[in-house]
């Protein structure tokens, strides 16, 4: 029940009518302003990036402070559970260890061979450069975007468009950079696109986020490759942002119109992430001598005469 | 109540007036804080964080409409857009329209108790999220409705808690 109750009829004073009229005008103005802002943000989505990074700066320290005790509790619960499953786990791991022994030898040999061949061919590769290790302090769990906040910002030389990794694999890329906090666009965000390679076939694909736990695998590239359930996807290094060979996802379903993959690293329970420089930053285009082209021909002739 | 026109007040009187009337801003402050709460890190596979701010706006519009005029939806919605990452203006546009819708529907639907209000809120919350979904798809990249649907369900589920919280705010801070 609304209080004070709305009067259904009766006379109102001139003052009340004026106030109601003003309120209505203000509402119409508010709706018009909001529609205008929406059109503006449609025209250039990055216009409000500074505001967003400011908001990130504001919210991040709050959640860091709140999450410290929570993380302790989580860690404690995890270690208690570990004790109960210790024997099972050890047996499982011993079995796996035997299985992987052979694989590991083969892998070491291949690595050695690869290094030898590369040095013979004199391959030049850009080096990966780490900017720093930062704590993940929060995320927008909204339905619209999938972001995480990390505890480093422009002060730590983070810039928009840098890859963010965890031990298990790729997390995403930095987008809005504040002074002390940065928003990371997760792989599962709708606007996230990651060029990958299928490890088994070596053919390229594109991972597309859709705000759901799983990612779409777009195979409609030039190679028209196929994937199976269990195929591992690693970054291909296309586009120069992500270094090649990072674990990104595993294919889990091929039934729908697009195969789906589960990201290898989810920010769930992650504590620290690494931010790196873009693997191969895009080269700045050589500046063209624009003056000659833009100047009016007559002006050019006059200039020549003057000289 | 303003007795002296604003332009006739001295600076001291104006400061005094603002100090005396800061409670008018409580609904706005509480909703913005609710938007900040919604950025709480919870890495669930689907969003389970209820839209607390929208619930509070609904409760205010239902129970204390005079404390929250429609136009305040713009600043609150913009704060939400910036904090949550929706296209700037999406919530700012929808919140005033939502309040108008709630006021309009409130006149026509009779409810006996708070459970009736709860049921009454379900279609309204659903319509809001549906409109937000369409608007975001129109302005930016389209995305599936499932995350918004889980958020709507969570929002409907926490209605009684939000109402309790709202009542406490009214008892403690009512302007």
Question: Would you give an account of this structure?
Answer:
The complex is a heterodimer of chains A (307) and B (175). Chain A is α+β, with helices and mostly antiparallel strands and 307 residues long. Chain A has a domain at 131-276: Thrombin, subunit H (Beta Barrel), CATH 2.40.10.340. In chain A, 38% of the residues lie in helices and 22% in strands. Chain A has helices spanning 14-43, 49-84, 86-121, 290-294, 297-306; strands at residues 130-140, 147-150, 163-166, 169-177, 182-186, 193-198, 204-208, 215-218, 232-235, 247-253, 260-263, 272-276. Chain A has a 6-stranded antiparallel β-barrel with strand order 1-2-5-4-3-12. A 6-stranded antiparallel beta barrel of chain A has the order 6-7-8-11-10-9. In chain A, a hairpin with a 6-residue loop joins β1 (130-140) and β2 (147-150). Residues 289-293 of chain A have low confidence and may be disordered. The model of chain B has no long low-confidence stretch (mean pLDDT 89). Helix content of chain B is 67%, strand content 0%. Chain B contains 8 helices and no strands. Chain B is globular, with a radius of gyration of 18 Å. Chain B has one domain. Chain B has 175 residues and is an all-alpha fold. Chains A and B meet through α1, α2, β1 and β2 of A and α4, α5, α6 and α7 of B.
């Amino acid at each position: 029940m609304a209080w004070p109750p709305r009067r259904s009829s009766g006379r109102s004073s001139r003052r009340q009518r004026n106030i109601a009229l003003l309120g209505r005008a203000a509402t119409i103005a508010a709706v018009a302003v909001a529609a205008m802002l929406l059109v503006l943000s449609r025209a250039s989505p990055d216009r409000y990036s500074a505001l967003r990074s400011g908001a990130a700066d504001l919210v991040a320290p709050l959640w860091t402070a709140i999450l410290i005790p929570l993380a302790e509790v989580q860690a404690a619960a995890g270690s208690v559970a570990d004790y109960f499953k210790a024997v099972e786990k050890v047996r499982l791991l011993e079995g796996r260890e035997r299985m992987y022994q052979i694989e590991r030898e083969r892998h070491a040999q291949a690595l050695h061979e690869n290094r030898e061949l590369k040095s013979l061919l004199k391959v030049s590769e850009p080096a990966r450069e780490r900017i720093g290790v930062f704590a993940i302090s929060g995320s927008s769990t909204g339905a619209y975007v999938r972001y995480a906040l990390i505890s480093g910002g422009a002060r730590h030389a983070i810039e928009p468009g840098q890859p963010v990794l965890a031990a298990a694999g790729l997390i995403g890329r930095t987008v809005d950079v504040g002074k002390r906090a940065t928003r990371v666009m997760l792989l599962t965000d709708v606007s996230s696109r990651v060029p990958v390679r299928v490890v088994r076939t070596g053919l390229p694909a594109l991972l597309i986020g859709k705000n759901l736990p799983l990612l779409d695998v777009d195979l409609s590239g030039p190679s028209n490759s196929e994937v199976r359930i269990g195929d591992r996807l690693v970054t291909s290094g296309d586009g120069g942002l992500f270094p090649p060979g990072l674990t990104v996802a595993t294919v889990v379903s091929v039934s729908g119109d697009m195969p789906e993959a589960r990201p290898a690293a989810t920010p769930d329970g992650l504590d620290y992430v690494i931010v790196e420089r873009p693997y191969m930053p895009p080269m700045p285009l050589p500046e063209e001598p624009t003056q000659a082209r833009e100047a009016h021909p007559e002006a050019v002739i006059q200039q020549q005469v003057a000289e | 109540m303003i007795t002296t026109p604003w332009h006739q007040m001295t600076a001291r009187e104006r400061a005094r007036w603002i100090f005396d009337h800061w409670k008018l801003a409580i609904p706005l402050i509480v909703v913005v804080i609710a938007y900040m709460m919604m950025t709480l890190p919870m890495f669930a596979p689907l969003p389970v964080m209820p839209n607390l701010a929208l619930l509070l706006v609904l409760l205010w519009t239902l129970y204390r409409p005079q404390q929250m005029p429609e136009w305040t939806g713009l600043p609150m919605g913009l704060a939400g857009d910036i904090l949550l990452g929706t296209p700037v203006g999406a919530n700012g546009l929808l919140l005033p329209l939502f309040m108008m819708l709630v006021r309009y529907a409130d006149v026509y639907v009779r409810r006996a108790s708070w459970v009736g209000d709860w049921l009454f809120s379900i279609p309204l919350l659903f319509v809001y999220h549906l409109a937000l979904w369409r608007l975001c798809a129109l302005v930016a990249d389209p995305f599936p409705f499932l995350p918004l649907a889980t958020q709507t369900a969570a929002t409907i589920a926490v209605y009684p808690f939000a109402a309790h919280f709202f009542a406490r705010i009214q008892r403690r801070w009512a302007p």
